[in-house]
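Q: I have 473 residues here and want to know how they pack in 3D. Can you give me a structure?
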Amino acid sequence: MPDQGGYGVPPQYAQPVGYGYPGPAMPAPVAAKQRNGVLVFGGVAGGILAIGIVIALIVLFSSSSTPKTSTTAGGTSAGSTGGGGGGGTDAGKLKASWTVPKSTVSGSDSHTLGEWTTDKLLVRGDATALTAYNLSNGQVAWTLTPPSGTKAFCSMSVTTNKNNVGGISLNLGDDDCASVGAVDATAGKLLFNVGSSLPSKSFDTQITVTDTTVAAASGALLAGFNLSDGKNAWNYKDRGDYCNESSDAAGSVVVVSDFCPDANPKQQLSVLNADTGQTTSSFALTTDNDRLTNIVSTKPLVLQISSGYDNDYLVGVDSSGKTMAKIPLKVAGEDRLQLSSASAALSKNIVLGNTLYVEVSQSNKTAIRAIDLISGTTLWTVDGGAEQGLRLVDGSKDGKPLAIAMDGFGKGSRLVSLSPADGSLTAISSFTVKDDSFMPFQDAQVLVSSDLSQVLTVPQLPIEATATLYGKG
């Protein structure tokens, strides 16, 4: 996806589907769902708003080469904790430029659904409204409330397309978000919303947008709609008469796993083009109980598969459609890896090249772990020597992952880059102690400008502020 005016969002990110917790085992076959030929779409209501308190720090995505295991200063290999505060000197201090006060409306559901950025605007969404703020001063530019016939906003695409158009889903009532729409993020105009109640409710529908199509995915909905007029562009066709499906949408793909006892193979995972709905690759899953939990990354494609709580795994898919290493999420003696999806509003992991960088809990701190997706090997785990550990930034600088080193209350925090080789830290800039003393790193979406000179925070649940911009000077 293109740079959105300095604040970049990787194309693999969209709306939340949880943090990797598996669902129940695949249920017994049921009668096939009936999908309308045209009006087949939906969303999710307040359920997706219950998101754990974590940070997602987002910057312009760029690829990197695969890290190699190393034992140089600042990090250690094979899963050990890295030490040291990291080399380099601060390029400058970041202090608050403006703050948007929290909403004074009582009783509203103010959890953040997502945010978009243009060259001039930050657009924040919750169930009650989408609101745009001028990046220059934080003043409200426009507000869009749910249209007549709908109850609330359900989900947002994580980014807009090159024309600053974003995708949404809307709640028609009773947690049935069977409406899909598109919004002009520059003007604050609803371009269209289409849909009606489905035979079965569409929960946890994920929305992704391309330059021509908005695509939606849930158990009851797998379809795409033309951005030009809102007309149905494609519908997914079940492989059999009795299928149970799990799906997710992110970037330019929709991924579907299904169990169809009257098809061959019974259990299959398919990758669809979000514009056309055509299958670009597919492969059989290991057991009949395996199913898609979520898309972790789209470039390369990385998937989380549910196979029973302690048997869930991560697998990458290369450009030819072949699977990489099967990486278990549960390792003896450690907490289970908690991965966020590529469609999550708050992220705990990124993929650069063929390396997964993921936050882990270690010694009461947040550390970052690097895992080689091809071999499945843990390359290193570091906490940077920071008092409260590291929080991962979704993006990179010169092929290096970025993070916030949290040095403790009253001591400030730093924006740093991590060496792909060993996780050693290089300081980029630091926050003033005054501002850092209340800065909600752990419960906010944080976007960083492409030149790393500005940091924008959007709390998941605004308590003191709705958004804050930090800059140099």
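Q: Anything worth noting?
A: Confidence is low (pLDDT under 50) at residues 1-6, 8-90. DSSP finds one helix and 33 strands in the chain.
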